Amino acid sequence: MEKIEPREELKPTGLIGISDKQIDFHFNTHYKGYVNKLNEILEKLETADRSKANQNYSEYRALKVEETFNHMGVVLHELYFENLKNGRGTKPGEKLTEMINKNFGSMEKWKEDFKACGTAHRGWALLVFDLSTGRLINNGLDAHNVYNLSNAIPLLVLDVYEHAYYVDYGPKRAPYLDAFLENVNWEVVNRRLERALRLQG
Ligand SMILES: [Fe+2]
Q1: Which residues lie near ion ligand 1 (Cβ < 5 Å)?
Q2: Domains of the chain in sequence order
């Protein structure tokens, strides 16, 4: 099976309020750690004994469960780094603004809810477009694979694990949430929304 390679081109530098050192640790240790583990799991899955699959415990079950953790660990980190890179001067597009106003009341109210979502969860805050209802939803995750909405496309991805901000802010998450919002590449978010709307048809 072809190995998954880390996407070096997504690594941001020169952000406002999130240091290159913080990003280096995050990208090189955490993100690449998920890439490596996912490759290891996929390799083991090739030969895992399907005839012994069991819901209490089996090697196959353990691999499938941890596949979701590491797969989403890779995907969410790539979306996170991508929506932070080269964002200076970008703005939410017309369609995104219209939908945020419709679904949250205003951009300010959306931000307030998004930050609350990032404060109330242990892993991630996502702004997603839900294909089932056509609505934007702030979706908080306690881990890469906990509380994800199944038919929703992530538009904006915020990592709130301590490893995302401890170098710069110690235990203070609030200033990191503000720094994140200062750095968002809205062009990336606008493009993801366009793609999600096309999928909905
Ligand atoms: Fe992370």
Answers
A1: 30, 159, 161
A2: 19-201 (3.55.40.20)
